[in-house]
């Protein structure tokens, strides 16, 4: 399994209704996309206290074939390239995904935290200790929890999709969820 995210930074005075309308109009196109576990359509808005205006979808893929089909196919990443230019895509190898009691269609926020793995230590010696409590401690508002590692930078990602509104604060990045596209098995 793989996670991926790209960020589209937008001007401070950007009308975020454009993104909201875009997702309302076309978000369903990835519902039940082959290979997808879920796609969360995420935004941050200066008007709601965020540092920046940003559109930053987050994906969890069950297999590389689905991810590849999205990245080079239609519907897919081509729409982002046409409308916003080709953005770098961050990707992580999944350590684990936990499903909570919340449903994908109830998701309202996503919190994403990253941190470097300890230097000089084999990943096998630290990954379970850094992720097991996070993956096991879902609450009543949890939809999904994702733990993953970027193996090019050895950075840990801990993400929670939640039915609660964004908490804001700390070292994590908080996003509003506009829509979640479920995969074929979700």
Walkthrough of the structure:
The protein has about 190 residues and is an alpha+beta fold. It has one domain (about 1-180): 2-Layer Sandwich (Alpha-Beta Plaits). The chain has four helices and ten strands. The protein has an eight-stranded antiparallel β-barrel. Strand 8 (about 140-150) and strand 9 form a beta hairpin.
Short summary:
By secondary structure, the chain is of the alpha+beta class. The protein is built from four helices and ten strands; from the N terminus they run E-E-H-E-E-E-H-H-E-E-H-E-E-E.
Task: Determine and state the CATH class.
Answer: Alpha Beta
Strands, total number: 10
Count up the domains. 1
Morphology call: globular
Taking all residues together, what is the mean pLDDT?
94
Q: In sequence order, what are the helices and strands, one letter per element?
A: EEHEEEHHEEHEEE
Strands across the major sheet, in which order? 1-5-3-10-7-9-8-6
Class of secondary structure makeup: alpha+beta
Identify the CATH architecture: 2-Layer Sandwich
> Might you state the CATH topology name?
Alpha-Beta Plaits
Number of helices: 4
Flag low-confidence runs: none
Distance between the termini: 14 Å
Biggest sheet statistics: 8 strands, antiparallel, barrel
Classify the beta-strand content into a percent band: 35-45%
Helix content: 10-25%
């Amino acid at each position: 399994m793989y996670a991926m995210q790209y960020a589209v930074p937008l001007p401070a005075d950007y009308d975020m209704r454009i993104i909201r309308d875009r997702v309302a109009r076309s978000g369903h196109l990835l519902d039940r996309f082959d290979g997808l576990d879920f796609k969360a359509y995420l935004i941050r808005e200066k008007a709601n206290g965020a540092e920046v205006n940003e559109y930053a979808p987050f994906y969890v893929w069950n297999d590389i074939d689905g991810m590849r089909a999205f990245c080079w196919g239609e519907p897919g990443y081509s729409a982002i390239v046409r409308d916003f230019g080709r953005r770098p895509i961050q990707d992580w190898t999944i350590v684990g995904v936990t499903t909570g009691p919340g449903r994908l269609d109830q998701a309202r926020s996503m919190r994403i935290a990253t941190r470097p793995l300890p230097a000089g230590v084999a990943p096998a010696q630290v990954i379970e200790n850094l992720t097991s409590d996070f993956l096991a401690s879902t609450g009543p508002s949890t939809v999904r929890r994702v733990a993953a590692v970027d193996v090019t930078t050895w950075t840990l990602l801990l993400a929670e999709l939640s039915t609660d509104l964004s908490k804001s604060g700390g070292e994590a990045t908080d996003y509003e969820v506009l829509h979640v596209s479920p995969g074929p098995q979700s």
